[in-house]
Specification:
alpha/beta; 158 residues; globular
Length: 158
C-alpha cells in the first residue's frame, strides 16, 4: 500500500493575499502543477483523496481525484497546525495495509516536513532528496502495518 503525501502547488505570495489564507487559490503555475501531478500519478490505483481545507490544497489534488473518479474530502488534521494529528492519520492508514490502492493526502510544507521528520525518527528509510517543494510528492510505502520507506518526487514539470 502507498500513501502519496502531496504538498499543494504554487499559490502566489501569502503576504500579498488579502483574504483568509485558507481561501488562497493556486496561481497559474500551481494549476499547471496540479494537472501534471494527475498525469504523473495516473497509473496509481487511488481509492481515497483527502486534503487540507485550504483551497490551494484541494485544487492541487482535484485533477488526480477526478481522473480516479473520486471526490476530494477535506480533513481538518491536514490543515496547518495539526502536524501530530496528521502523523497519527498516516500511521492509521498504514495499519490498513491489506488495501492495495493508494491514499492521497494533500497538505502544507511545514506539516509535511514535520511528519517526515517524525517518520524518519521511527526508522523510515528515505530515497532521493528530502525536499518539500510546492507540488512535490512523498510516496510512502507501507508494509506490516507501518510506513517503511519514503521516496521523494520532485514537482512534475508543467
Amino acid at each position: 500500500m502507498s500513501i502519496l503525501v502531496v504538498r499543494h502547488g504554487s499559490a502566489g505570495n501569502r503576504l500579498a493575499w488579502e483574504g483568509d489564507d485558507a481561501d488562497r487559490p493556486l496561481d497559474p503555475r500551481g494549476a499547471a502543477q496540479a494537472a501534471s501531478l494527475a498525469e504523473a500519478f495516473a497509473d496509481f490505483p487511488v481509492s481515497v483523496v483527502l486534503s487540507s481545507r485550504a483551497v490551494r490544497c484541494q485544487q492541487t489534488v482535484l485533477p488526480l481525484a477526478r481522473r480516479a473518479g473520486l471526490e476530494v474530502t477535506p480533513d481538518p488534521v491536514l490543515y496547518e497546525g495539526a502536524s501530530l494529528q496528521a502523523l497519527r492519520l498516516v500511521e492509521t492508514l498504514a495499519r490498513d495495509d491489506d488495501q492495495s490502492d493508494a491514499t492521497v493526502l494533500c497538505s502544507h510544507g511545514n506539516m509535511i516536513s514535520e511528519m517526515l521528520h517524525n517518520l524518519i525518527l521511527t526508522g523510515v528509510r528515505t530515497h532521493g532528496d528530502r525536499g518539500c517543494a510546492e507540488g512535490s510528492v512523498w510516496e510512502l510505502s507501507c508494509r506490516g502495518g507501518v510506513v517503511v520507506e519514503g521516496r521523494y518526487h520532485h514537482p512534475p514539470t508543467a
